[in-house]
Amino acid sequence: MHPRSCNLSCLGPEGFHRIRYWEWGPENALQTVICVHGLTRNGRDFDDLAKALAERGWRVVCPDIVGRGESDWLSFHTGYDFNTYISDMSQLIARLGGGSLYWVGTSMGGIIGQMVAAASHAPIKRMVLNDIGPFLDVAGLARIKGYVGTDPSFPSFELAERAINVVTDKFGPMDQAQRKRFVEVSIRKRSNGAFTMNYDPQIAWAFKENEPQSVDMWHIWPLIKCPVLVLRGADSDLLSASTSQRMQAEGPKAKELVIDGVGHAPALMSNEEISRIIEFLEAEDNQ
Amino acid sequence: MNSYSEKSFKVFAGSQFIKIAYRDWGPENASKVAICIHGLSRNMRDFDEFSNAISDNWRVLAVDMPGRGSSDWLDNKSAYNYELYEAVCAHAIALSRTEKVVWIGTSMGGILGMRLAAKGAPFSKLVLNDIGPFIPAEGRRHNQANFGKDPRFKTEEEGITYIKDTRRTFGPFTEAGWKKFGTDSLRQLDDGNWTLHYDPGLASDAPISDTNMWELWPKIQVPVLTVWGEESLLLTASTVDRMAYSGPKTEVFSVAGVGHCPGLTTPSEISAIAEFIDR
What is the number of CB-based contacts under 8 A between chain A and chain B? Predict the structure, then answer.
């Protein structure tokens, strides 16, 4: 099973830019789940989850956020912000037409998800937050600042692979084949034959220009009205156990799934993760 | 008679999603899609005759902009601005599911067409109904004379008469056409009275001056057809000339005997547009 490669012209801060999204499953499905990746990642991270959902009749839509993967890059770095990302996702939601909409967001994709779901009349029925919540620990942000947007050049694929494995060693669990594909979609070949990361280094501008500090979005948590499942890597340095506990106690009162042996972030490739996500998305609403 | 279904989509606007209504005409999987956007105080119903005429092989999406017709009204009236309208238009383009769309805009809808085209919108063609990159203050003043007045009418007929009296430069319409135009402009309140079909809060008291958008004109890279009401106070002969000789060098279809703006209901207007977009 392969995804359909689709394009969408989105109006953004520099006029229209093109967004690539990967669509799985029946085009006219009644239920659609949008899967949004983390800061430096792209829509292909969700291949395994998307396949499993598509086989059950879901349409699954995995965008490459602007500046990542196969989507356009912006000219000016300041356009890489949550206003742009949310506006793009709103346009993507319009593209997908009616029907029920669900959200799976890893890290940055979960921040976008929380902001979208907190808006009144948000068209999100259920949301999975992967190792992200309304409070981001400074430790994780400082670690990310250390590697993001350095625009490295590697003479060989293997060296690029090694560098990616270093900065994503807490990402998992993945078997060998999954790790291989995870690396493949992370690497882009430059015009001169060298290898680098598959994103515009300018996406990191906010990390570069600011000292790392924790991010507090607790004010939007009670505005989220849809059921939430939070996955937490047991060793996560971005989503702490205490933040997760508060997410379970307040607002939408999230359900929690802890993934042992991984940090930021669970890869959503294991049978356990996939089956628990499907179970949550397909649960009957009692509301 | 072709049919339409009335649908809606959502647009993220600050802390809320707003509901935008549209009429969806013609085959849903058509590769040829036209998006129609109305003028300042108007709504999607202005394109019924045109949509009906071309929707054998065109899908037509006629959209109510925020504050008009069946779309949501905003609590914060200052949020009625071109930034929001452009976002709404981009969502309509997205939902068309095609690579390129034809844009048909009357007055404000044409301003949006020019602005979006200059930003690289995926248009194949642009139709401007009685609007161009320069609008004299006098024309704007005239067009907005009764805008935002929020009148009440005891009967629908009374409302139709008011529309006819205040919108005499529109047309040409038959007697039945005036009745439809009037009916489309009205909505009934819970108390039985009739009023206009838009949020009176759309009107602002900002001073009216000339609007000069010539910097957009050379950025428009697609073929343009301008439908021109020859007596228009908003689109003058000299502006039409410059539109025809510079930038995208618009074709012009003039409609004699009307001002702002042509109603797009006569066979000659409809076939002029159909011929242009089908070419």
Answer: 70
Identify from A11, A220, A225 which residue to disrupt to test chain B contact, counting B C-beta atoms within 10 A and taking the largest count.
A11
CATH class of A19-135+215-281: alpha beta
Q: What domains lie within chain B, and their CATH numbers?
A: 4-145+213-278 (3.40.50.1820)
| Nearest residue of chain A to residue B219 (CA atoms) | A15
Confidence class for position A286, pLDDT limits 50, 70, 90: low
**Contact criterion met (CB < 8 Å) for B11 and A122:** no
Sign of CA dihedral B115, B85, B101, B229: negative
SS3 B39: coil
Ordered by start, the domain boundaries in chain A are 19-135+215-281
What local confidence, expressed as pLDDT, does residue A287 receive?
46
Tell me whether residues B17 and A121 touch, CB distance under 8 A.
Answer: yes
Mark yes or no for CB contact B12/A95 under 8 Å.
Answer: no
Nearest CA in chain A to B115: A15
Tens digits of residue pLDDT in A67-101: 999 999 999 999 999 999 999 999 999 999 977 89
Q: Which of B84, B91, B112, B114 to mutate to test the interface with A (most CBs of A within 10 A)?
A: B91
A97 touches chain B (CB under 8 A): yes
Q: What is the pLDDT of residues A108-140, one digit of tens each?
A: 999 999 999 999 999 999 999 999 999 999 999
- Tens-place pLDDT, residues B86-101: 999 999 999 999 999 9
Does the ipTM surpass 0.90? Answer: yes
Nearest CA in chain B to A124: B17
Kindly report the pTM of this predicted structure: 0.97
| Residue in A with minimal Cα distance to B15 | A119
